[in-house]
Amino acid sequence: MPRSWLVPVDPVRKYCFQIQGTDGVEVYFSRPVPVRGAVCHP
Questions:
Q1: Which domain of life does the protein's organism represent (predicted)?
Q2: Are 28 and 20 in contact (CB under 8 A)?
Q3: All structural domains of the chain with their residue ranges
Q4: Beta strands 33-35 and 15-17: pairing type?
Q5: Rounded to an integer, what distance in angstroms lies between the CA atom of residue 10 and that of residue 39?
Q6: What digits encode the pLDDT tens for the residues 1-42?
Q7: 5 FRET partner, CA 20 to 30 A, in 19, 21, 29, 41?
Q8: Are 37 and 14 in contact (CB under 8 A)?
Q9: With b meaning 16 or more CB within 10 Å and e meaning fewer, what string describes 2-20?
């Protein structure tokens, strides 16, 4: 069942966006995506 989330953010700060999911056995992560020029570390 898909879920969505609304996350409040500060319009001035830089962020890294990453999605995490599971199949019930393993946990999977997307690559971090920079927002507003952030530097993301895996």
A1: Bacteria
A2: yes
A3: 14-42
A4: antiparallel
A5: 17
A6: 677 888 898 999 999 999 999 999 999 999 999 999 999 987
A7: 41
A8: yes
A9: eeeeeeeeeeeeebeeeee
Give dist(CA 41, CA 20) in Å, integer: 15
Predicted TM-score (pTM) of this structure: 0.63
CB 28 within 8 A of CB 6: no
Residues 42 and 28: their CA atoms lie apart, in Å, by 13
Say how far apart CA 42 and CA 7 lie, in whole Å. Answer: 21
